[in-house]
Structures are given as structure tokens and as C-alpha cells.
Design a protein that fits this description.
The chain has 449 residues and is α+β, with helices and mostly antiparallel strands. It has helices at 2-16, 18-28, 31-45, 48-63, 72-85, 142-158, 180-186, 244-262, 300-320, 346-360, 378-383, 416-438, and strands at 89-93, 97-103, 109-115, 166-172, 195-206, 210-212, 215-218, 220-229, 233-234, 269-277, 284-285, 288-297, 324-328, 338-339, 342-344, 365-367, 386-394.
Length: 449
């Protein structure tokens, strides 16, 4: 209600005095002004009180990791901080998600995204703020991602005069295989967003550097589970049985041919069988075997083709060995059928190069090779232009950091002001550049998302 009244007040002021507003916009949109914004925002983010605030939030979240669609305490903490900042938001969105708004409440709308969920990993790092939830850990840096978007919100709130539009703060659940991004889109709260930015920490790159590329950056992915059924019996008389282990072994070998013999060598693809479960005794042929794995590619067409052929190969090879097979491409923990490739918009790439270069120096902005990892940020990019990048956090004077998804993963908290300032700068300068192009005309104005 308060947000709606504020939006109406701003609209009335614009109608009564449009010349003042346009003059301000023109001044802020000057080339020199855009160049200075990233540096100014980074200086603000590096203030001790701001850094300490972000570090405190990150450590609270790290102590209480929650899995996908269970991020209730994390969501509560985020909402508390947004309330303190005086930032309106919508909640709940897709169970635990939050969507906040900073700016005029008018178009254009640009979003910055943070994922909130942790992983089912037991933390082995022994430190003061170690996970208090057994078997759960922020082993992918999502606690830092949340802190950086909240840091960006603080920067934006302190520089409202710079905003010529609205920055949408997206705190989404269940990135780790739960398709939280898709559910946020399905909720309809991002329908008017024009572009979105997202980042991920990178343990192997130096702090103060960023890396990305236009076009395909991360692979799309799918998963499969198959049960191959035969007829169990005594291992000494195999002729009286139908051996599903033999059939499953042939399946595993044949699945590798999908990449080596059927895929274009210039179209990178992966099929990995990572689960093989069958039997429990050395002298008993089991009734069935379960196998499972993942498949990945950089185009949706290749993903769909792999999915089709995986099912055909499993069922066909099972039949050759007189077995039957069922194939499932989803399960209760990972309900999404296919995660699309993460494809960066080319225009947003140019915007990223300029903003990151202005903030960090052009030599700190690195070109990144495509990676077979997968990100549900890709769902946003299917709906509207999006850009995803990585931010380095390795300090050369400190021990080498461990990789994500490992029990000894740690965050270099010196990264927080960089991520916060980049988020805020990318969004603010995008709005300043887009405002003149996207200014609504006539009675077609919508005053909130």
C-alpha cells in the first residue's frame, strides 16, 4: 500500500513537471556519469560498515543452510533486512522466494538475482560459523550471492537519484536442481522485466577479476533413471536366469557411443552414467538393476536428441539381453525435465564489458571458455535477455580455495563488495541507457511489476 502511494506520487510529479525529470535524466545519462557510477558504487560497498554488514548476513545464512524450497529462515532474514532498508517486496513467491523493488516503480525494469538454497553436504571446514544443520552446507556460495544482492540493494537505496526505472531484486529458491527460476517465472512476478543479471563465485580466479562470454556459457542438462528388469536366480546356473547386470553393462557402454559416434564433434555433449545399483550377494543374479546419470549439451536441440536416444538405447539394449526397461527423466528431488543452456545476450555482454571495465579495469575482465556445468538462471534467459558471469575470489597471498560442491569449500569474504557493486552498477547503468528507449507513451503505463 505504501509502495503504491509512493509510485502514484512520483507519477503525479512527473506529469506536473516533466521538464525537470527529463533534464535530470539527461544529466545522469551522460557518458562521464555512467563511467563514474561503477567506481562510486564500489567505493561505497567497500566502506567498513557496509562490508561488516554483508559479512554478518553471509555468516548467519551459512550457519543455517536450507535445501531447495526449505529456505524459510533464510527468506525471513532477507525480508528483515529489506524491511530495515525500507524496500518493498512480494512474498511468498514459489514457496520461499522474494521479489523486491528499488527505484521509481516505473519501467524500465531490470532484475538482479540471488539463489538461496544449500546442498546436502556435511561441512568439514572447522570455523566459528560452521553449518549448524547436520548434512547441509552452503557449498556453492549461495550465501554470498544473497549477501551481495542485499549489498546491491543498500547501494541502490542510498543512490535513488541515480535510478531512472526500477531494479527488481530476485531471491529465488531451489537453484540446485529444483528449477526455482522456472517456478519464479511461472508465478508471473517477473512478467515486465526487460533484462536480468546474475553472478556466481569462482574459486580459481583472482579476486578483483570477472569472467564471462557472449552466447552459450554453461550447458543445458537433464537426468535419467532407468530400471532394467530380468529374472533372478543362482549365479551357478545362469541359464535359468535373465541377467539384468549383463544387460545394464551393455547399456552403459552403448550410451557412450551417443557422443563418440552420433554427436557432431564440434557440438560438445556429455552422457555420464553415475549410478549403477544391482545385487547384494556374490552368488545371486538379481531381478533388476538401476542405473542413472546426466546428459548435457550447449543447445536445446542436442539435449532433446540425447534424451530421445538415451531412452531408445536403454530399452533396445535391454531387449537384446531379453530384459525389459523403464526410463524416467525426472524424480521427486529434481522435477524439471530439462535445464536449458545458459546463453548470454550479446548486447548485455557489451554492457557488462563496459561496466566491469570501468570498475575493475579492462585487464580484470576475462573471456571465459564454455563450461559443462548447468545453471537454472537459463530459464530467465529463455523469457527475456539475461547475462550471467563469474567473479573471482582467490587471494594469491592465501591458501588455494577448494572447488564448489565439496565439503571443504570456503568463501573469501573480501569478494562481497565487488559483487554488490557490480550488481548495482550493471542495473543502474542499464536503466539509464534504456530509459529513453523504453519510456512508455500514452495511457499504456504500468506502475508496478
Amino acid at each position: 500500500m505504501i509502495f503504491s502511494k509512493l509510485v502514484s506520487f512520483v507519477l503525479i510529479l512527473q506529469l506536473l513537471n516533466p521538464i525537470v525529470v527529463l533534464s535530470s535524466s539527461s544529466s545522469l545519462s551522460s557518458s562521464n556519469g555512467l563511467t563514474e557510477i561503477p567506481k562510486k558504487f564500489l567505493d561505497f560497498a567497500k566502506r567498513k560498515e557496509v562490508v561488516d554488514w554483508m559479512v554478518g548476513i553471509r555468516r548467519k545464512i551459512h550457519e543455517n543452510p536450507e535445501l531447495g524450497y526449505e529456505e524459510f529462515e533464510t527468506s525471513k532474514l532477507i525480508r528483515l533486512e529489506l524491511d530495515k532498508l525500507g524496500i518493498p517486496y512480494k512474498y511468498p513467491v514459489s514457496v520461499t522466494g522474494i521479489v523486491g523493488f528499488v527505484g521509481t516503480g516505473e519501467p524500465p525494469f531490470v532484475a538482479i538475482r540471488a539463489d538461496m538454497d544449500a546442498l546436502p553436504i556435511q561441512e568439514t571446514v572447522d570455523w566459528e560459523h560452521k553449518s549448524k544443520n547436520p548434512g547441509k552446507m552452503h557449498a556453492c556460495g549461495h550465501d554470498a550471492h544473497v549477501s551481495m544482492v542485499l549489498g546491491a540493494a543498500k547501494i541502490l537505496k542510498q543512490h535513488l537519484q541515480e535510478l531512472k526505472g526500477t531494479v527488481v531484486l530476485v531471491f529465488q529458491p531451489a537453484e540446485e536442481g529444483g528449477g526455482g527460476a522456472k517456478k519464479m517465472l511461472d508465478a508471473g512476478v517477473l512478467d515486465n522485466v526487460d533484462a536480468i543479471f546474475g553472478l556466481h563465485v569462482l574459486h580459481s580466479a583472482p579476486i578483483g577479476t570477472v569472467a564471462s562470454k557472449p552466447g552459450p556459457l554453461l550447458a543445458g542438462s537433464g537426468l535419467f533413471d532407468a530400471v532394467i528388469s530380468g529374472k533372478g536366480g543362482h549365479a551357478a546356473i545362469p541359464q535359468h536366469s535373465i541377467d539384468p547386470i549383463l544387460a545394464a553393462s551393455n547399456v552403459v557402454v552403448s550410451l557412450q557411443h551417443l557422443v563418440s559416434r552420433e554427436a557432431d564433434p564440434l557440438d560438445s555433449q556429455v552422457v555420464t552414467v553415475a549410478k549403477f545399483q544391482g545385487g547384494g550377494a556374490f552368488n545371486v543374479i538379481p531381478d533388476s538393476v538401476t542405473i542413472g546419470g546426466t546428459f548435457r549439451a550447449f543447445s536445446k536441440a542436442s539435449l532433446i536428441q540425447l534424451k530421445k536416444r538415451i531412452e531408445e538405447v536403454i530399452k533396445g539394449q535391454a531387449a537384446v539381453q531379453r530384459c525389459s526397461a523403464t526410463v524416467d527423466f525426472s524424480n521427486s528431488k529434481k522435477p524439471m525435465l530439462l535445464f536449458p543452456p545458459t546463453v548470454n545476450d550479446k548486447d548485455l555482454h557489451e554492457h557488462f564489458l563496459k561496466v566491469a571495465g570501468d570498475m575493475l579495469g579492462n585487464d580484470k575482465v576475462k573471456d571465459m571458455k564454455p563450461v559443462m556445468g548447468s545453471e537454472d538462471f537459463a530459464f530467465y534467459q529463455e523469457a527475456f535477455p539475461g547475462y550471467f558471469f563469474f567473479i573471482g575470489m582467490q587471494d594469491e597471498n592465501r591458501p588455494k580455495l577448494s572447488s564448489v560442491h565439496t565439503p571443504n569449500f570456503t568463501i573469501n569474504e573480501d569478494i562481497l563488495p565487488y559483487g554488490a557493486a557490480l550488481h548495482a552498477s550493471l542495473a543502474t547503468t542499464y536503466l539509464l541507457e534504456a530509459e529513453s528507449k523504453l519510456r512508455p507513451t500514452g495511457g499504456n503505463l504500468h506502475d508496478e511489476l
